[in-house]
Structures are given as structure tokens and as C-alpha cells.
Amino acid sequence: MTDRAPAGPVEITEPEPADAEPGAGPGETTAETSSETTGETSGETTAETTGESTDEVAGRRWVPRFLTDPGDRLALLLWALSHVGVLIYAYLAGPGRTTDPFLNRFTRWDAENFIAIAQFGYDGPPGMQDAEKLPAFFPGMAILIRMMRPVVEDGRLATMIISLVASAVLAVMLSRLAETYAAGSGRYTVAALFLSPFAVFLYSGYSEALFLALAVSAWLFARNGRWEDAALLATGAATVRISGLFLAFGLLVMFLVAENGRKRPGGWRLLPWLALPGVPLALYSFYQWTRTGDWLAYNSVQDRFWGRHAVWPWEALANTWSMSDDVASLTTSYYEEIISAAVLLVLAICLAVRRRWPELAYIAPQVLSFLTLSSFYMSIGRGSLTWFPLWIAIGVAGVRRPWVWLVSMAIMIPVMAINTGNFTTGAWIG
Q: Long-range contacts for 280-287 (Cβ within 8 Å, ≥24 apart)?
């Protein structure tokens, strides 16, 4: 979903500074709200300045904003070029390492589980020995795959199309969101995310791109005071990943502290909308209870198949360090998990110090989930893709401290290349 603004005269806006509280308060103007406000009178303004009648202006053909906005177009260019680069690199990495069909290289593991759910439901296909693990995967991605079947019968291709479209939406909306923190930071933020160490999952048949497209859009609409839209998007995100609940918590805190939230006249009447993201989890838990008799089937499966249960933080760290020596081919991956955990912890501390309460409310539950609710570190690196406050911070650095952005990219791009080569040739990276 993209936020659209009517075509009109060139608008000069001042995005919300990075150290401002989320949301457009009195005297604050974001690019999105300015666009909407200006759009209401664009016909009159154009008629006055160009001599055209209002009817002539109203009869103009509407053009989507992403086709005319320079920031949107640059974001889409980065999206397109990064996809081309990943495809080329994956093709070159294959000889001598894998003979899998090219499409299969991007649709491993989780993608195969989504396809199985889409085709056979949570009982899995006949003969699937580990079908009992499928409740660990939320239904949002599988539902889209199933909906596409009349047009795209190949489930693998369907997952790739979903990620392709979702990542395009993500690029545009992330650029717009970053601009509300610091003018000019959109391009740097998009580049940082799409060239981040685990970005290969954005180009694969995984659910990260779909989740982020919904989550980032929800965050942007919330900052602009469009709470109903934000709640609906967050509800969609909650059908895709458990992180949708963390997103909902962040939106709730934003609503409580933002000037365009509860503090505005009649703001409290919008609060019930923020309960919507909890509905998918309730329905999903009920559905799994009808199948398994377990209201917490998601948690039970996570514990049984991946060892995800409560432990002390130092135990999870010690277990991960010990496991890094067990399988030589996974040593690097476990080291990446440890580094990712450190980055997550530092991010949370920085958000707390800077009193970024909404962003902290979104990130803090992930700290608890990754560092204390798993017997060892797993998929933290992949989870880093959903930490959009981190990518926005790096993007803002591109404007204010370019050397920080350059150093970050110099570190991330080689790691991304290694992980892309490993994932597309069959190695586990998170």
C-alpha cells in the first residue's frame, strides 16, 4: 500500500527533525501531512498561478506519486538495481557449489513451508515427516500464495513475486518514513537496508519483505496521525509474523506520547483501533486449538523444533558460543548471530538514552524474545531486517555524518555478499 497525494504544484516541506517526538505536533509538518493538506487546495492554487480554470485542473489525469516524486523514484531505482545485483551474484556463486534450479535457490526452507501450508493447510502434504512444525509459521504469506494460485500455479514463483512487489512498496515507504526524521535521509536508509548483511531474505521467498512493507507503512501513517490506517496495516503485519504484536505495542506508545495521538481533541476515541493487531493472533490461536488442542501451539512448536524457551541471557550466549564450534560450516553464522545480538542490545540502549519511546517499545520486546526466550541465538541476524529504527538511524547518519554511513556500508556489503552466496547455494545463515 502506498500513501498517495494528488498531483499539484511543487511543495516545499520541512520533515520532522530526528530528535522530535514521533507524530506531527503543533507547528510540526511532515512531508506526508503537508502533501495531504496542500492537495486539498492544489486545484485552486494551480488555477491562480497558471491561469487555468479549476475544471481544467480537475480534469487532469491523476499520476501516482511514486512516478513523479524524486525521492520515491530514487528509492525504486535502488530497489531495482539491488535486485539485479543480487541475481547476478547468485548466478555467479552457483557453479561448483550447487546444481539447484535458479528459482529454488531463493525459495528454500521457510519458503517451502509457506508453500506447503498454502497447498495443504497446516497438516502439510502427505508424507511430510516434520509437518508438526508448521504452526510456527503465521498464515499471512501462505494466504497470499493460495490467493495467487489461479494466476500463478508455481508456489515458488508466487513467493518471489510477493517479495518482489512487497520490497518495492517497502523501498518507497521506508524512504518517505526516513524523510520525516531527517530531510535527505531516505536514499541512505533504503540503501542501508537493501545492502544490509542479511538482505538476501528481502530478495527471497521469505516473509520479511511483506512484513516490513506493512510495518513501515503503518509506522509512517501513525507518525502522520492516520491511526485508523496504521492500525489496519499493523493488523496485516500481525498475520505475517509475531513481530506484528511488537509493532502494535510501538504504535500504542506512539499514540500515547505523540501530539497527534491521544493529546489531540477527541484522540482517545481512536484508541480502540490499536487493539486490532491483536485479533489475528487470537484467531490464529483459536484455529490451532481446534487442530491440536493447544492454545499455545505456536510456542510449543517453537520450543520443540528450535529450542525456543525461557533461559537466562548468559545461558543463551554461552550455548551459542559453544555451538559455534560444533559444525564448522555454521561457525560463521553463529558468530554473526552473536554480533547481531550485540547490535540489537546497543540499539535498544541508544533508543532509551535518546528517549525514543515508540521505537524502544517496538525494539525492546525483540531484545527479550531473541536474548532470553531461546536456548541459543537463532535468526537474530535475519530478524535485524525488521529493525527499521536502526536503518533509519544509519540513513540519518548519511546526511549528518557521512563517514558513519560509509563505514557502515563498507562493513555490511561484503557480509551481505557472503551471506547471499551461502544462502543461495544451500548453506544456513539464519
A: 280/138, 280/140, 280/235, 280/238, 280/239, 280/244, 281/238, 281/242, 281/244, 281/245, 284/138, 284/139, 284/239
| Residue position matching grid coordinates 480502540 | 272
Phi/psi of residue 383, each to 5°? -65, -25
Distance CA 343, CA 415 (A): 15
φ/ψ of residue 9, rounded to 5: -70, 165
Q: 264-272: long-range contacts at Cβ-Cβ below 8 A with a sequence spacing of 24 or more? A: 264/225, 270/227, 270/228
Amino acid at 21: E
Are 175 and 71 contacting, i.e. CB atoms less than 8 angstroms apart? yes
C-alpha cell at 71: 525521492
pLDDT tens track for 166-197: 999 999 999 999 999 999 999 999 999 999 99
Q: How far is CA 262 from CA 25, 169, 201, 333, 362, in A?
A: 11, 29, 37, 44, 19
Q: Position of cell 503465521?
A: 138
Place of cell 502434504: 125
CA-CA distance, 293 to 279, in Å (whole number)?
19
Cα end-to-end span (Å), the chain:
28
Could you give the CA distance from residue 326 to residue 324 in angstroms, rounded to a whole number? 6
53 burial (CB, 10 Å; 0-12 / 13-18 / 19+) is exposed
| Each residue's pLDDT tens digit, 203-250 | 999 999 999 999 999 999 999 999 999 999 999 999 999 999 999 999
Would you say how long the chain is, in residues?
430
CA separation, residue 331 to residues 327, 377, 394 (Å): 6, 12, 28
Q: With contact defined as beta carbons under 8 Å apart, do 79 and 167 qualify?
A: yes
